[in-house]
Amino acid sequence: MKFEIGGILEEMLLALRKETGKGWKQIRVVSEQFAELNKDRLQLIAELRLDNELTEEEFLARLEDEKLMLEVQLNTLKVLTKAVVQKAVNAAFKILGDAVSTLIAPLR
């Protein structure tokens, strides 16, 4: 199943912006670069799940890996607390997970 990641990435960036408040200015460039550099991999992960080539557990594990990579990149900037970064990254990746779950639900 074809999955369009573009709009989802925009929503993910908006979630990061919302959760980081004033800190968004300091993490914006890194966040946008992460989205651009990883969009193909995130799209592939979503499509593999939608095509049932990944189990739910495998999909969630891959998302967790992606979340950790973004957290590391944002934490190296040392402009936000680790808790704020985790909350923001979790909110962003919840959007991707929810989008895939919404598309999978009718297929079950």
Record keyword descriptors for this entry.
108 residues, single chain, mainly alpha, 4 helices
Could you give the topology of this structure?
Layout: H1 6-20, H2 24-50, H3 56-75, H4 82-104
Helix pairs in contact: 1-2, 1-4, 2-3, 2-4, 3-4
Task: Give a written overview of the molecule.
The chain has helices at 6-20, 24-50, 56-75, 82-104. It is mainly α and 108 residues long. α1 (6-20) runs antiparallel to α4 (82-104) and α3 (56-75) runs antiparallel to α4 (82-104). The radius of gyration is 14 Å and the shape is elongated. The model has no long low-confidence stretch (mean pLDDT 94).
Q: Helix/strand/pairing class, anyone?
A: mainly alpha
Low-pLDDT segments? none
What is the tally of helical segments?
A: 4
Distance between the termini: 14 Å
Quantity of strands, as a count: 0
> Number of domains in the coordinates?
1
Give the biggest beta sheet.
none
Helix content: over 70%
Shape field: elongated
Per DSSP, what share of the residues sits in E-state strands of 2 or more residues?
under 5%
**Mean pLDDT over all positions:** 94
Q: Helices and strands, in N-to-C order? A: HHHH
Q: Work out the radius of gyration.
A: 14 Å
Give a quick summary of the entry.
The protein is mainly alpha-helical.
